[in-house]
Structure formats: structure tokens, C-alpha cells
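From the pipeline queue, job 12 of 40. The input is one protein chain; the requested action is below.

Action: predict structure.
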Amino acid sequence: MGIPLFLDSGAHGLYTEHVIKKQHREGYQWFTTKEFWKYVDEYAEFLHSHTAHHINVYANVDVIFNPELTWQVQQYLEKEHKLHPLPVIHFGTPIKWLHRYVDHGYDYIALGGLGQEAMKQEYIYWADQAFSIICDQPSQLPKCKVHGFAISSHELLVQYPWYSCDSTKW
């Protein structure tokens, strides 16, 4: 199978282009257009042509700060394309969404990190809640693997039981 690869969906780039650059005005409307769903379908086609031999893990096309639409995309990729993307929950998302993914039996979940101008202390407060769900067994070991997007702080790397992390900065 070669070297294991983890593929990011490009969701942060979509968020930057369609929400941040438009200063949040009407930006989220793009995520309900045919153009967005075409992007999701093309991502699925790419995955089908490369997962058999090259890509081991791939993230959902999450809609940052819109957990309902992120869930819809997750379900769409699973049901329509028979794929199993890594669910993504972002800092600040109500914890009930993490419960949803854990309760549905996902064994590998991604948590969005400090990439959206979050203050580290705010992130720690939220991550403490998230990991209290992920590590609620008597052993305090995680019941699923967790990927940390935008996690490069040594403090955060050692504070939580990540399975994997990434960052654009070292």
C-alpha cells in the first residue's frame, strides 16, 4: 500500500475564499450552491480514484462554523459516494455535535484547532470539554482516534491524547 497518506479536503481554503474574503456577508450562501456540491462530488471522484492505493485517511469537506451543513456533507459522502471521510468538528462548535459523531460510532474524528484566530485559552476550555467526551472511559484513554487540525503548540500537543496533528506553521 505504500506510505500512508492523510488528505485534507481543502475546506479551510473554501472558508477563506467564500466567507473571510467576503467579510462574512453572504459568504455561507455559497455552501448551498450547485458549485459547492460540484466541489464535493469532484472531491469524491478524486478519492475514489486514489484511495485504493494511495490515500488512507481523508477529511470531510466541512463547512467551518456550520456544523449542520458539515453533518449533511458527511452523510452525503457516505450515502451517495460510499466514502468514509473523517468527521471534522471545529473549535467553538457546540459539544452536542461531537456527541453525535461519537454516538454514531466514528472511530477517528478531527478537531479543528487554532486556525480561526482562536485564543489558546478559549481553545483549551473547549478542548477540555471535547476530550472529556472522547476520554470518558474509566481508563481515561480515548475511545476513538483524534486528529488535530492547526495544532502545533507544544502545550496542546502534550496536553491531549492526539492520534495525529497537522499545522501550516512549525
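Job complete. The longest strand covers residues 108-112.
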